[in-house]
């Protein structure tokens, strides 16, 4: 178990510059609140990697995307649009036609309603994939978000009506995650065309759809050790030319377990065999004495993070870089109490990752998954380990809680928010693990109490001893005074 932890200049601030954009949005909304009238003001909201405007119109609150990416320049542009919307709302001149022209949807909405379902589908697909090309780090699956929509509309040669919408929704089961995704997909679809007449129907289905979250299978530390020891033995029919790959997959497995990495992050380690430098606070840059360029977040002292394989390194903090030379987070190794998985899993060796061509290249029709993620998931499935590679990340989080790691440090190490840690990640903790943690805490509390009680007893005995010594001193003083007289 690691006792020392990295001291970051900013606690719970995202290390990718996102904190700066959030501050700019707050400042823009503060200025916007000084304009217009209450209930007739537009403000800026963040929606993933994009910006949206939120405002009330005709007694309902709306949040509409404006096709602007989150950035300082984009926030400035969004503030200007919000001012225009506020002016229209205040003057009672706001219409959806005007708004759609404002954000670049210049065609008349009434003409859109005359399109057939198939025509609307084709137009929306162009918009959908164009938007994701602009946001390469947040690609979404068309099949996942709009699969049910396509099943119905690809053969719909008439304008969409109420029955068509119901048919799309009812392709999925009630109280399911698929229906929730379908309803959200419909909302985005109709928002694109500025159509609001089906909102009440969609809201009705949403209120009655309550999917139950499925528990992820998260392995215990004992199971992780067992798979490491037994799950990477080649079969008798394995060709000799592929034998070397088993040790590579075993190395990756250990790395994911010890550091709680996302799969692709194993191919983005900055300091395995060379040190890195912390410059200006949280930003991690590859060590290069000839390069003075670096992003700036906070002014702070330069600090060297040793290479993991440095023989003098006892902390083994991992620096994980972004797809540029500037990294964005650090991870600490976590082993069960009484173990050192770094050594037991033989990780202190030259980086020995699976031999995957172009591991970080995104694959698939819409480039949703990296090659390394696809191949790793395939290996875990073929070997029937009983859990996914990502489950090792959840196990890391559970281990951190059991070890009593500071929550802020644990979240920073995982690279996610405290809110996600307390919801998504802790929701995967089994009742057995929770019980184990409770028993451990009770045991620690009893041990602490027994130590306190022992100290209290020792304190009482010491007080008695002190009183005896004080009385003895008084007696000796009296004897001494008598001798003098």
Write the layout of secondary structure elements.
Elements lengths: L17 H15 L10 E5 L2 E8 L2 E10 L2 H19 L5 H7 L6 H5 L3 H18 L7 H12 L8 H8 L7 H17 L5 H9 L13 H10 L13 H16 L16 E3 L5 E3 L16 E3 L12 E4 L4 E6 L9 H4 L17 E2 L5 E2 H13 L7 H12 L4 H8 L3 H8 L5 H54 L1
Helix pairs in contact: 1-2, 5-6, 6-7, 6-8, 8-9, 11-14
Write a brief caption for the model.
This protein has 485 residues and is of the alpha+beta class.
Overview of the structural elements:
This protein folds into four domains: 1-106, no CATH class; 107-212; 221-429, hpI Integrase, Chain A; 445-485. It is built from 17 helices and ten strands. It has helices at residues 18-32, 72-90, 96-102, 109-113, 117-134, 142-153, 162-169, 177-193, 199-207, 221-230, 244-259, 341-344, 371-383, 391-402, 407-414, 418-425, 431-484, and strands at residues 43-47, 50-57, 60-69, 276-278, 284-286, 303-305, 318-321, 326-331, 362-363, 369-370. The strands form three sheets. It has a five-stranded antiparallel beta sheet, with helices on one face. Strands 1-2-3 form a three-stranded antiparallel beta sheet. Strands 9-10 form a two-stranded antiparallel sheet. Helix 5 packs antiparallel against helix 6 (142-153) and helix 11 (244-259) crosses helix 14 (391-402). Mean pLDDT is 80; it is low at 1-17, 106-110 and 287-299.
């Amino acid at each position: 178990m690691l006792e020392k932890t990295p001291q970051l200049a900013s606690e719970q601030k995202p290390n990718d510059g996102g904190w700066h954009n959030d501050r700019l949005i707050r400042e823009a909304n503060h200025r916007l609140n000084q304009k217009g009238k209450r209930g007739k003001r537009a403000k800026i909201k963040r929606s993933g990697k994009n910006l949206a405007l939120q405002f009330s119109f005709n007694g309902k609150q709306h949040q509409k995307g404006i096709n602007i990416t989150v950035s300082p320049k984009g926030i400035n542009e969004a503030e200007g649009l919000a001012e225009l919307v506020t002016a229209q709302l205040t003057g009672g001149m706001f219409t959806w036609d005007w708004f759609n022209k404002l954000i670049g949807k210049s065609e008349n909405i009434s003409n859109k309603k005359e399109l057939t379902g198939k025509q609307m589908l084709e137009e929306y697909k162009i918009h959908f994939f164009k938007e994701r090309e602009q946001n390469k780090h947040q690609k979404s699956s068309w099949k996942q978000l709009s699969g049910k929509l396509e099943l119905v509309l690809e053969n719909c040669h008439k304008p969409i009506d109420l029955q068509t919408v119901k048919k799309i929704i009812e392709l999925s089961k009630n109280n399911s995650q698929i229906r929730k995704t379908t309803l959200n997909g419909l909302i985005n679809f109709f928002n694109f065309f500025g159509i609001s007449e089906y909102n009440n129907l969609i809201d009705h289905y949403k209120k009655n759809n309550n999917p139950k979250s499925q528990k992820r299978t998260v392995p215990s530390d004992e199971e992780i050790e067992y798979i490491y020891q037994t799950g990477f033995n080649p079969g008798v029919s394995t060709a000799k030319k592929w034998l070397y790959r088993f040790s590579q997959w075993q190395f990756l497995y250990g790395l994911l377990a010890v550091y709680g990495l996302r799969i692709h992050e194993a191919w983005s380690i900055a300091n395995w065999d060379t040190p890195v430098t912390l410059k200006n606070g949280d930003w991690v840059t590859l060590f290069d004495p000839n390069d003075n360029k670096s992003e700036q977040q906070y002014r702070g002292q330069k600090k060297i993070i040793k290479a993991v394989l440095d023989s003098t390194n006892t902390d083994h903090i991992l620096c994980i870089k972004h797809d540029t030379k500037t990294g964005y987070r650090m991870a600490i190794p976590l082993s069960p109490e009484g173990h050192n998985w770094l050594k037991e899993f033989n990780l202190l060796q030259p980086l020995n990752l699976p031999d995957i061509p172009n591991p970080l290249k995104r694959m698939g029709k819409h480039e949703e998954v990296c090659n390394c993620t696809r191949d790793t998931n395939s290996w875990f499935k073929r070997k029937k380990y009983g859990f996914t590679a990502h489950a090792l990340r959840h196990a890391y989080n559970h281990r951190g809680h059991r070890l009593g790691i500071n929550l802020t440090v644990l979240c920073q190490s995982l690279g996610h928010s405290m809110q996600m840690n307390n919801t998504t990640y802790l929701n995967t903790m089994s009742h057995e693990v929770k019980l184990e943690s409770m028993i451990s805490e009770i045991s620690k509390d009893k041990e602490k109490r027994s130590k306190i009680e022992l100290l209290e007893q020792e304190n009482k005995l010491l007080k008695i001893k002190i009183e005896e010594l004080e009385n003895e001193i008084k007696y000796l003083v009296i004897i001494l005074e008598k001798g003098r007289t």
